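Key idea: predict the complex, not the pieces.
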Amino acid sequence: MKLKKIAAYAVAATMAASPVMAQLVFPSLSYRTGPFGANGAEVADGFADYMTLLNERDGGIGGVMTEVIECETGYSTEKGVECYEATKGEGALIYQPLSTGMTYQLIPKTAADGIPMLTTGYGRTSVANGAVFPWVFNFPANYWNGASAAVNYMLAENDGSLEGKTVALLYHNSAYGKEPIPTLEALAEIYDFNLTLLPIDSPGQEQKSQWLQVRREKPDYALLWGWGVMNQVAIQEAANIRFPMENFIGVWWSGSENDVIPAGMAADGYKALTFHAVGTDFPMFDDLQKYVVDAGLAAGTGENVGTVLYNRGMYGAMLAAEAVKVAQEMNGVAQIDAAMMRDGLENLVISDETMAAIGLQGFGPNFEVSCENHGGPGLVAVQQWDATAQEWTIITDFEPSDMSVIQPLIDADSAAYAAENGIVPNCG
Amino acid sequence: MFEQFLFGIEAAINGLMTGVMYSLVALGFVLIFKASGVFNYAQGVMALFGALTLVGIQEGQVPFAHLINAIFGTKITNFTWEVPALAAIALTVGVMIIFAWLVERLLLRNLVNQDPIILFMATIGLAYFMEGLGDLMWGSNIKTINLGLNQGMNETIDAATYEWFGYGFYIDNLDITAAIIAVILVVALTVFSQYSTTGRALRAVADDHQAALSVGISLRSIWVIVWGIAGFIALVAGVMWGAKSGVQFSLSLITLKALPVLMLGGFTSIPGAIIGGMIIGVGEKVFEFIVSASWFGDLVGFTMNATENWFAYVLALIFLVFRPQGLFGDKIIERV
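Result:
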């Protein structure tokens, strides 16, 4: 009898002590404070709210509730790594650190710990080669897709020729900002345009020298690879020197409402790349409003639903949730672990049917992930800011990028990483 | 080559203007250091807090709305009114004075006659506290300053220089406004510091807390006055920088731009803050212009970009070698 009691207490204690084992755990390395808090909060809210929606509306994923463990990083790489170490033992299924600096630090750690990482639209571009980076994914688009898409867009605007044109790249003087340079240099050679590189030191509050140079040299197009305050200042300075906004194109991290609103009407016509839709004109958002925002369960105030960065956070959560479904189906169990999650990510198929079932048809591009391609198809659209209506409008379809240029760069960079780290590329 | 010369002049003038923007931040440091010997690490956060409060009051935002909503389940965000710009500025100055009083009451009063490093550490704590308080009061979203400050190219200067040289110089209207405000501030502060009784008392406190107390100067009043004025200067700096980028938490990082200015101009000189700012501004802009130019590349075989951040510190360090107290700082005499 005594033994039975002890056994019962032990079982109860075990269940009480490890509730996370009955959850699908998604750590969120968020940054709601510090210089980049305004952006980080929106992404974190979108991520958390989508997971809440799944719990409230569907009872989780495959009958297992989701749990978001948020850890504040302040966009500090050191704190991000601390957050990773603090949360990885909680049954973490996947990390989406939302920082290129953190991504670089976590690539070897996640591989050693066997936890997948999804770095949608940021991080190290060559992780698209799954044979070298089996634990890291960056679908549906990466920086090099973005650089190529920007050039394709400029080509389309100029009847297929950029010969003799000048393109200025204003970039954050960091690993993130330097990512598109190899692709742009390769494309400049192919299409015979001049590329002017203008680095801007972090945080980017003072950019007068760079914009005076733009004013003097009068490039035909300016590309912006910034983040945080650098974006707002760049757009304001471009307006100040009367650079034509329709020829000013930002990467997706330079294309949120936060970036254009401070410049007011002067930002009208500014363009940015994107790999997902904007706004709330999708059936899923009705459910989000009903089950999350109106129910008082939103992570934030609910005012940011539909903004670019909120939607990006929500899209990240949606991709992770779909990968969980794939993993559950592949393994025939509802409670999956990180290794199963990795397999789910590698076999993910996002089609019209998938998106329609979620209530997000047309929200993002269709794609299939494979071991050879962790980066997806690199379909990128262009959006434009309407300062009067205070909204972004997508002005192109999700167009393919130039993989004939990008793939050799991915192969070379991933091969170098493999050689440095003694990795034997393997796609089984 | 004449064209390059004109470009260089344009870069130098813009450097002067940018330097004034740096000086606006540096002035607050100087004032507090001059009067209390404290290097106020929180000056940048004070600029952020001032600008946040100004926009919050002007837009009729309910302070601590997120906290109130989270506790009581309400959904309040704004009052039904908006406050006119001048009234909002006056109210914000009031908030900064209350802040100064609280700093004296809760922080400085307990640290009288402590080592400068203790006071410095206390201001680091204050910076973190204020950043969190600003977030809690007004939220972390980016806000737009709506004071009618004119931004963009000054047409008159552009047209005049085009007529003279065949090339129109770009000078930002906001920078011109900042320069005018900075000149007014410097004149007012210099007169106040040199010729008013309170100003002389400020300097006495800076020299020696205990000696000032012994001759009947109220340390507490002086500290409230100094921190209040520094709060006002921080508000001006926050508004000027916030007009460029929107009011956001990266504003607190403008401190980094003020440090080389202080090293160069001296921690105790109000005109030094302005002249130091101008030297740094012109130096970094002209250096960047020269080393990024293609003719420089042809000459030496390489070009450089994004030099401004490190160049300002290198320039300040070079000055430090020859004048450790800065160009206009008081000579340090230690009796042993």
